[in-house]
Amino acid sequence: MAEKDKNPHAGHRKRLREAYLRGGFEALSDVNRLELLLFYAFRQGDTNPLAHRLLDHFGSLSGVMDADIEQLMAVDGIGESSAVLIRLMGQLAAAAEKERVQNRTKGILSTTVQCAEYLMPYFFGLNRETVYVLCMDGKCKVLACRQLGEGTVNAADVSIRRIVEIALHHNASSVILAHNHPCGICNPSDEDSATTLRVWQALDAVGIQFADHIIISGTEYHSMAETGFFESFL
């Protein structure tokens, strides 16, 4: 075969794997990272164009890993198996980070930073607003972290009753409410502020401290207690 007829991509998969083995994750571009991952969904063929399509569609590597299966399958060339692989990788990373944080804190959350770091992994990969209730005892030890559901945090009365029910069930001394802003802005909305007041009133009525309402976006957070919001109704 003439030199000009040789496949320019021959050996590419081997070279990319070797680059990863030599230099690790940081040695690869985002395209190459996705490309390498897709090798395990597509045993043959060039996955570079598909990696580009994913990044173009979702805008970033984190956008790809945070996408749900239906969204991934909307990208030309992504079938169910490859979508499951990508989604699973994102969820495995979130689970591992959650475990690392829990091991590091030993379940004792005595500062706002510790609370935020503990809660962040619960929101990894979520592109819909989701609400969690964190229950703690009098020594700031975590008793439970329960998902209330998906949707905006301007909760109906039934959601607030559910918060009280969860807190009482776990015999909590204090409660932190947490939800995410997938839009990337942590600042509380008017609805967030109104809900915070209603939750505080409901918990105060049963003698449970409402310690904070933390809004999370990626690796950023906003603590409504830390910024003085709670002082307005104490």
Give a description of the structure.
There is one protein chain. This protein is α+β, with helices and mostly antiparallel strands. Helix content is about 45%, strand content about 15%. The protein has helices at about 10-25, 30-40, 50-60, 60-65, 70-75, 80-105, 110-125, 155-170, 190-205; strands at about 130-135, 140-150, 175-180, 210-215, 220-225. Strands 2-1-3-4-5 form a 5-stranded mixed β-sheet, with helices on both faces. Helix 2 crosses helix 3. It starts with 11 loop residues before the first helix and ends in an 11-residue tail after the last strand. The model is unreliable at about 1-5 (pLDDT under 50).
Q: Which oligomeric form is depicted?
A: single chain
Q: CA-to-CA gap between the ends?
A: 82 Å
The whole-angstrom Rg is 22 Å
N-to-C SSE string, H for helix and E for strand: HHHHHHHEEHEHEE
Number of strands: 5
Largest sheet strand order: 2-1-3-4-5
Portion of residues in beta strands equals 15-25%
Structural class: alpha+beta
- State the low-pLDDT regions, or none: 1-5
Largest sheet composition: 5 strands, mixed
Q: In DSSP terms, counting alpha (H) and pi (I) runs of 4 or more, how many helices?
A: 9
How much is the average pLDDT?
88
Based on CA inertia axes, which overall geometry fits? elongated
Helix content: 40-55%
